[in-house]
């Protein structure tokens, strides 16, 4: 029995794990499918789902402008509309980026699968790769939970308010033209549209952020696998009877793998640089408005949405920090190669790798700041400063 279990475990370890990476993309595939975008294919396609998504976002803009016109000078309720506009604009940027640059997304997924399969060729890397996939799946599932919880809380809390007060309280401050929300029929129509808005927002944010995580997080597994390759290479160098041909093949493989990782990072950093500026800026602005409306105006939907926006901002900046850390790790790992045991021609390859590692690409917020936890703290401090100023003005 014990030997059979060992055999089964060895058989599982011997199997390639590339299919597991493909399966980890399921959440990204499902959420992007619902908004009508497929970043896993090269061709841009206008589907009925994409047209519906675009029309819904356009309707939200129109209805928000109509609501602002109806409200007039009521600044508190106008602020609620402004919040919806900010969140909708953030979603518009996400879906527009996904549609206009779907081919770039496709290239990122093709590249990451190619690197994964290259590392997966060595059975000793598979436990590392599988661990990375498990972390990726866990992170994507946590995103689904947080975003869905945030959207569901809006409905649950507002439903509780309606039941307790016996008043027709709207989920969001967005009116529909020619629909009187004070009547029973108008209230049902308006509430149904608000529920559609919330569901679409939750799925849209998940679609964009799950794709971002699915393309960035695998770098962690690649850098850890590269360390394993280097450790195996050093072990070969320390053998008494060295196989020079095998050592040359190992070194060339390490050079190739490192080059693939660096090129992939450059590709991802260049792609996300400008979009990160829009994302982080809108996240910071939305967070400021949400906290102000939640704490000062006691607006329940703002309290619920704060959870999702803060989680999203933390996610982006923490992933940026992880990539910076892993770039530093690669530099240290390459420096740890026993280059003094190599002939001169092979030493130059190590020097070349070390030079490239010292110029590792990190995620940036436009051209302004690195996307890491230092920037994250600065954003929170800035939000706090403006929040304190707004509280002072209101009171």
Note the topology.
Layout: H1 2-14, H2 18-24, H3 26-35, H4 48-71, H5 75-100, H6 102-120, H7 126-165, H8 184-216, H9 218-237, H10 244-295, H11 300-335, H12 344-358, E1 364-365, E2 369-370, H13 373-394
Describe the structure.
Keywords: Cell membrane, Coiled coil, Membrane, Olfaction, Receptor, Sensory transduction, Transducer, Transmembrane, Transmembrane helix. It is found in: Cell membrane. Belongs to the insect chemoreceptor superfamily. Heteromeric odorant receptor channel (TC 1.A.69) family. Its main location: membrane. This protein is mainly α and 395 residues long. The protein has one domain (17-394). 80% of the residues lie in helices and 1% in strands. The protein is built from 13 helices and two strands; from the N terminus they run H-H-H-H-H-H-H-H-H-H-H-H-E-E-H. Strands 1-2 form a two-stranded antiparallel sheet. Helix 7 packs antiparallel against helix 8, helix 9 packs antiparallel against helix 10 and helix 11 runs antiparallel to helix 12. The N and C termini lie far apart (74 Å). The model is unreliable at 1-13 (pLDDT under 50).
């Amino acid at each position: 029995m014990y030997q059979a279990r060992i055999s089964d475990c060895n058989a599982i370890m011997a199997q390639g794990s590339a299919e597991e990476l493909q399966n980890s993309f399921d959440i990204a595939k499902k959420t992007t499918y619902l908004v009508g975008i497929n970043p896993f294919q090269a061709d841009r396609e206008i589907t009925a789902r994409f047209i519906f998504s675009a029309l819904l976002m356009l309707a939200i803009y129109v209805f928000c402008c109509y609501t602002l016109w109806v409200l007039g000078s009521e600044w508190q309720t106008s602020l609620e509309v402004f919040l919806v506009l900010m969140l909708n604009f953030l979603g518009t940027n996400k879906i527009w980026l996904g549609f206009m640059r779907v081919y770039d997304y496709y290239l990122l997924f093709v590249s990451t699968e190619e690197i994964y399969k290259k590392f997966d060729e060595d059975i000793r890397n598979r436990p590392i790769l599988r661990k990375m996939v498990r972390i990726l799946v866990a992170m994507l599932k946590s995103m689904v939970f947080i975003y869905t919880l945030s959207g569901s809380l809006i409905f649950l809390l507002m439903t509780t308010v309606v039941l307790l007060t016996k008043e027709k309280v709207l989920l969001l401050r967005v009116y529909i033209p020619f629909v009187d929300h004070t009547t029973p029929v108008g209230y049902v129509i308006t509430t149904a549209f608000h529920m559609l808005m919330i569901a679409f927002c939750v799925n849209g944010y998940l679609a964009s952020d799950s794709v971002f995580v699915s393309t960035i997080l695998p770098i962690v597994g690649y850098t850890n696998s590269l360390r394993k390759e280097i450790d195996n290479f050093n072990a070969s160098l320390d053998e008494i009877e060295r196989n020079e041909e095998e050592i040359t093949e190992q070194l060339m493989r390490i050079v190739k793998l490192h080059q693939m990782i660096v090129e992939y990072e450059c590709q991802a950093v260049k792609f996300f640089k400008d979009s990160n500026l829009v994302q982080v800026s809108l996240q910071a602005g939305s967070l400021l408005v949400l906290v102000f409306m939640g704490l000062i105006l006691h607006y329940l939907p703002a309290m619920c949405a704060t959870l999702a926006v803060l989680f999203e901002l933390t996610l982006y900046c923490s992933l940026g920090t992880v990539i910076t850390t892993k770039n530093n790790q690669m530099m240290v790992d390459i420096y740890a190669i026993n280059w003094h045991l190599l002939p001169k021609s092979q030493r130059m390859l190590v020097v070349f790798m070390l030079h490239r590692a010292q110029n590792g690409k990190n995620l940036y917020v436009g051209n302004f700041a690195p996307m890491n936890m230092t920037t994250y703290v600065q954003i929170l401090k800035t939000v706090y400063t403006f929040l304190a100023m707004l509280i002072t003005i209101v009171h």
